[in-house]
Each structure stands twice: as structure tokens, then as C-alpha cells.
Write a structure and sequence with these properties.
single chain, alpha/beta, Rossmann fold, 2 domains, eight-stranded mixed beta sheet, 11 helices
Length: 309
């Protein structure tokens, strides 16, 4: 089974100039001129805090300045530069890298030319949004900085995106629309004419989730994990999923709850205490990637022969 990666903002924070989501949202809060919002930033889910910021702006301006906020976020993340871990990851023997990040640090870390190769035109969502560089396909599953309208942050866009993902995964059984993985076409990325999305990669491949906190408001990722677990129960040849739970010190109750949920969904949780820094954890993970040999793709069970999932 091929191996792919889902990576979050943790890799960016290994740089001295790494920007955290809290910093980005605090900047938006400061611009909204609301001391009350600033006081409770840490206690609010980021997707809902984003909606609150927009609505607080609405009461003063009369319009929801969604694009203004997204352009601000895009300007912040485009200042990020690749570090040694980006360079090692983009040169690893992995064909597909899924990322929730909006920046292009992975693309810029590559020594090869990178270019946008979206498999279908999208103006707001990012099921097909990818860049190619060398041997790797980099999928920006939550949008990208150069197209601010695609940046997925607020609850409204998360819900719309989830609707699109589920429609794609449960489309008509024998037609050309929908997921090729669900049709039993596991070599979709070997066919130049195939229209596939990151969900197909996520379902088919062994996925390693790294540097991603998996906030519960990231409902698209949690749904993908749930649906993959359901497919496995139905006999589909899905890949394994491994969540690298890197933490500092004792695991808080919310972390234990998250681990319990992931394991119930069939996800392997690999825990490591990174009190002395996260660099060694990335070193060990990347060293493992360097010796991965992708196995031949297993035959799948087409969903035409299975009950609705």
C-alpha cells in the first residue's frame, strides 16, 4: 500500500518565524477592536471565533468582510520560508502530501519547478487543489494563499466544504462522476485523464498525520476519518491511518478524549513526549520515510457491489 502524508502547521512552527493559528486570529481580533474577544481567544474554537470576528466587524461596517480577513491571513502566511524539515519532506519518497496549510513552504523547498495542476476548476473549495513538484503532488486541502477565497476557516465554509466532500464520495455508483476509489479504480493517479481528489488518496493510501492538532472544528478531516473507518468495515481496501500524537508533558483530558475517538475510528495513535523539542520527533519520522518502499496497490471492492456507505 502506498504511503501519503497529511501535515499541519506544526512543521512551520519549527522555523523561528513560524506563525501559530492563535497569533493569526489574535491579529484579526486586534483589528476588530474588541477587547472582549481578545480576552477569550484561547477558550473558543477557531472556526467559531473567526465567525465572531466577522460578525463583530459587520455591526460596525454593515457588511461581512470575509475576503478582507482572508487576504490578511494570506499576507501573514506568505511570509513563511521553508526550513530544513520542509526540504527533507518534499524530497522524501512520497507521491502525495496533503496539507491543511495555505502557504507554499513545501513547494518552495523543492529543487524542482512547481506548478499548479488542479484537476478541476474550483473557486471556493479545495477537493482538487494541488501543485506538482518533482515526484510529489502537494494538495492544499483547506485552500491556498494565492486564492484567498479558498481559505477555509469559518464554520460556514467548513460546512459547505463538508457537503461537497460527502457528495463526491457518495455520488452515483456506475457513472463517471464521483470518487474513482469508490468505483474500484485504485490506479487513478496513474491515469493522466483521471479526475480524482485528495479524498481518493486519503482513502486508498496509508496516511500519516503529522504536525496537525486535529481540532474538533476541522469537521472535514474528522468526517474523512469516520468515512474511511466505515469503508474499512464494509470491506473496501482502504489504507491504514496513523496519527502522530506529539505532545509536551502529561496529556490533557482533551488529548486523551481525542485519542480515544481516533482509536475507535480505526486510527493508530503513536504518542511521543516532545518536552525537549519537536525537532527530534520530525527527525525520527523523516528517517522512517526515507526507507519506505511503496507496495503494489491491492485490488479493491467496488462500491457497486456494496450497500450504500
Amino acid at each position: 500500500m502506498a504511503t501519503s502524508i497529511l501535515i499541519g502547521n506544526g512543521i512551520n512552527r519549527l522555523s523561528n518565524a513560524g506563525v501559530s493559528w492563535e497569533q493569526i486570529l489574535r491579529q484579526l481580533v486586534v483589528e476588530s477592536e474588541s477587547a472582549k474577544e481578545l480576552e477569550y481567544v484561547k477558550d473558543k474554537p477557531f472556526a467559531l471565533l473567526y465567525e465572531e470576528i466577522l460578525l463583530s466587524r459587520t455591526t460596525r461596517t454593515g457588511t461581512v468582510d470575509d475576503m478582507g480577513a482572508k487576504r490578511k491571513i494570506a499576507s501573514l502566511v506568505t511570509t513563511l520560508c521553508p526550513n530544513e524539515y520542509h526540504k527533507r519532506l518534499i524530497s522524501a519518497p512520497v507521491n502525495h502530501i496533503l496539507t491543511t496549510n495555505y502557504d507554499y513552504t513545501l513547494e518552495h523547498a523543492s529543487t524542482a519547478v512547481f506548478k499548479s495542476m488542479n484537476l478541476q476548476t474550483e473557486t471556493k473549495y479545495s477537493l482538487f487543489r494541488r501543485w506538482t513538484t518533482g515526484q510529489s503532488q502537494v494538495w492544499h486541502v483547506h485552500g491556498e494563499a494565492n486564492v484567498p477565497n479558498t481559505i477555509t476557516l469559518g464554520y460556514d465554509q467548513y460546512c459547505g466544504y463538508l457537503q461537497k466532500l460527502r457528495t463526491y464520495a457518495t455520488a452515483e455508483r456506475n457513472g463517471e462522476k464521483g470518487s474513482p476509489f469508490k468505483r474500484g479504480e485504485l490506479d487513478f493517479d496513474a491515469n493522466a485523464d483521471s479526475k480524482y481528489g485528495w479524498l481518493d488518496v486519503f482513502f486508498r493510501d496509508d496516511i500519516h498525520i503529522v504536525g496537525l492538532g486535529l481540532d474538533f472544528t476541522e469537521i472535514d478531516i474528522w468526517w474523512a476519518l469516520t468515512y474511511k473507518g466505515r469503508l474499512a468495515r464494509r470491506g473496501f481496501a482502504v489504507g491504514k491511518t496513523c496519527f502522530h500524537d506529539w505532545h509536551t508533558g502529561p496529556i490533557a483530558d482533551v488529548g486523551l478524549a481525542k485519542r480515544s475517538l481516533l482509536e475507535a475510528l480505526g486510527v493508530e495513535v503513536r504518542s511521543a513526549d516532545c518536552t525537549d523539542g519537536f525537532g527530534p520527533a520530525y527527525d525520527a519520522f523523516l528517517s522512517t520515510l526515507s526507507i519506505i518502499q511503496s507496495a503494489p496497490v491491492r485490488p479493491s471492492t467496488s462500491w457497486a457491489s456494496r450497500s450504500e456507505v
